Amino acid sequence: EQILYRFQGCQLLGTTRETGREAHADQSVIILHAKVAQKSYGNEKRFFCPPPCVYISGHGWRVMQDHLKGEETKFYLTVSVFLQQMFACAKSLFISDQDKRKHFRLLLRLFLGNRQEVGSFQSRMIKVISKPSQKRQSMKNADLCISSCSRVALFNRLRSQTVSTRYLSVDRGAFVASARQWTAFTITMGKLEDQRADQGDFVLSEGFICYGCVVQLVCTESGVALPPMVIRKVNKQHAILDVDEPVSQLHKCAFQFRDSPQSYLCLSNDTIIQYQAPSSIKDPSRVVLNDGSCWTIIGVETVEFTFNQGLACIQTPVSPFPVITGLEVSWIRQVLFTTPFSFLVRVQSVRKVGFLYQTNLITVCLRS
To answer: Where does it reside (predicted)?
Structure first.
């Protein structure tokens, strides 16, 4: 009854059935951020890298734009510019040594062009670290390890200069090195026999990513993937071939193409290329790298909120944005509610729902 009442409340806008379809268009807010952040000391500022990003999507924003256009032109223009960008990032965030917190969350406050607040949205928890750990990680520090099927970001920074930072990204289906936007990749680990497998074969394996393992990077948004690669530890611009310890947050690493062992993933300006790395003359277990083939890896989180704001005038902002923390259903596989709209709820399985409209767990269809 509570769910039915809430959906009915969305219809109390004085709209017709025809405009109701537009009024119930979904709006999405996606927050991307790193799992860890380095603390700054003294006068230095270690800006969060990669910077937290916000994407908005969904037809509901366009409906809201048209609604504001009808109310006042200047509001429409403001929202129009924002919708064309669909993206924003915070490059100047840092945490000082005066802040004693070991964990924190980011808080996003979202406003429309007419200064009406949509609501506030929280990120996932971020761990504060002093510097990347150079010690071999153990199960006690599992939160600092990179696990298979988790999400990561890669960036390249020349001589620790912030202005030279380039992020591995995907643009229109192609891998690029971007100074502005970064992409979250799902990193998957292959089984040991994959190192000798035929091209195209890749069998997933679970556990923590270790140096010397075959991995694959898949764009979480587009599904575009790089070929299978062997992840190598980097020390003083050399790839070390005989290290098998777990990969940790903010480690420097290199990616050796499995089917072309002399080639390494590399950037050249804004282009992603294959670098032909020569072996070290002094040590056969090391390979000499250039600046563009040394990457820093970090775990990232993606938080998505999908909702329908409707066209009603909100007197008070939704703050913080409500989320579903759990759902229990017994002996129900399909429920049909009939109101001015039909609500078709299909429950796939009895599992916890992390956020609204998480379609792999519960599907809600609105019909006029």
So the answer is: Nucleus
